[in-house]
Specification:
199 residues, single chain, alpha+beta
């Protein structure tokens, strides 16, 4: 237990340092346009993730697996680290329950029963403090934004998990879709409420 305290203190300091360095001032955050999402509070809108120990940047490692470095849009802090936007995807959400399912490109234009709606979502990667081993907020000649040097310690990735957030008006987001409520599309469409609706 006592051996964990120094590492906990290091992670707490990392969190506090990044909160202080990456966020806009309180006065700037008060000027946020109506309806804008939380990324508005960041001084920089993107950051670079490097695999710790990589010596190929700015070139790319041709090996298999996730890239040795990549750029993400800044999304938010979460309780255990920093979150960046990976891409925009689509999901089918049920009005009958909290359940939802991811949609492939070919499924977006399908007609679905009443009570289900297609939503655009941000997919995010959640990088925990424990995987961030060094950072440079000034950047370099290639990318003048924060650079993070990370352990790819979770299944060969820097992420400990992913998030899915509903997008509103193509700009902001409302809430995170709980991963515990994610099901396959077939399961979502086979609910009793759906069966009753289409009879």
């Amino acid at each position: 237990m006592h051996g964990q305290r120094p590492r906990l203190n290091v992670l707490t300091k990392l969190r506090d340092d990044l909160h202080k360095a990456m966020l806009k001032s309180s006065a700037e955050r008060l000027k946020r346009p109506p309806g804008q999402s939380r990324p508005w509070k960041f001084a920089k809108g993107e950051f670079i993730v490097h695999r710790l120990g990589d010596n190929v940047y700015p070139d790319f490692d041709e090996g298999s697996g996730i890239s040795n470095w990549f750029k993400l849009e800044t999304f938010d802090f979460y309780h255990n680290g920093l979150e960046g936007i990976l891409n925009i995807e689509y999901a089918l959400v049920s009005e009958f329950s909290r359940q939802w399912a991811s949609l492939e490109d070919g499924q977006i234009e399908r007609s679905f029963p009443t009570g289900f709606w297609v939503a655009k979502v941000f997919k995010t990667g959640k990088i925990p403090w424990r995987n961030i081993r060094h950072f440079d907020l000034m950047g370099d000649d290639f990318y003048r934004c924060p650079h993070f040097y990370c352990l790819y310690a979770d299944n060969g990735m820097p992420y400990e998990g992913f998030g899915y957030y509903l997008i509103r008006d193509n700009v902001s987001y409302e809430l995170e879709l709980p991963l515990a409520d994610r099901v396959t599309l077939d399961v979502l469409l086979s609910t009793e409420s759906t069966k009753m609706d289409v009879q």
